[in-house]
UniProtKB/TrEMBL annotation:
Keywords: Hydrolase. It comes from Archangium lansingense. This is Carbon-nitrogen family hydrolase. Residues 5-245 form the CN hydrolase domain. It holds the Pfam family CN_hydrolase. Coiled coil: none annotated. One of its GO terms (molecular function) is hydrolase activity. PROSITE patterns: CN_HYDROLASE (PS50263).
Amino acid sequence: MSGRLSVALGQYDTGWHAPEASLAAAETLITRAAAGGARLVVLPEMATTGFTMDKTQATPLAGPVVSRLGELAARSGVWLVAGVAVREEDGADATAPCTVNTAIAFEPTGRVAAVHRKQRLFAYGGEHQHYRAGTTPTRLTIDGVRIALFICYELRFPELFGAVARDVDAMILIANWPAARRAHWDALLRARAIENQSYFVGVNRTGTAGGLTYDGGSAAFSPWGEELAPDTAPGVPLVTLEANKVAEVRERYPFLRDRAV
């Protein structure tokens, strides 16, 4: 339990409705990041399909796409977070599948460690008509660093982050955030780090898909809101998160103690 974690900002062009091509690109990225010393590799939202409203693109949690991602994590011996549109059975009616927008965390063995279901759906793009919202936050601990997972549009809702701030050292958000709203992305990533006195890591995609252009902008911020300068030597940007630095900032400036929630 070192309390120190090297994270790869796995920004890439995930393509559009092309899982095999995206998985091949992800494999190259994960292999390179692992060789560069990454302990955790983070891929974008809906990494295997692009941000799609076509529910036929969704895959079972126990299906081959998710299994392949687990295999990629195991092959490189790293933790992996990847966005996947998942089809699962409705708890009330086992014959009625539903779709959820998820961030799946895989252990270095390939086992699924956690599944975050997006809590705020992007109604502007019709997501609420095709996907079901999650109802709870998702947390896990990797090498002594306590992490909460989030997805794209959730970035606009500070109450989601405030609800878990005291219990985590880092917040990781995966996204398909269009270039047209890039200024909001840049501002909100930093704001979430500052207001929660937490590391904040945002990983976006690049490329063109579904009629939209994505220009990345993946970044990480310290608990004081300073942008971390990534190590780009491995070919995949790497940043280091340290739990003790979170504790130091919160002890020196105990702002979270005054929060009502």
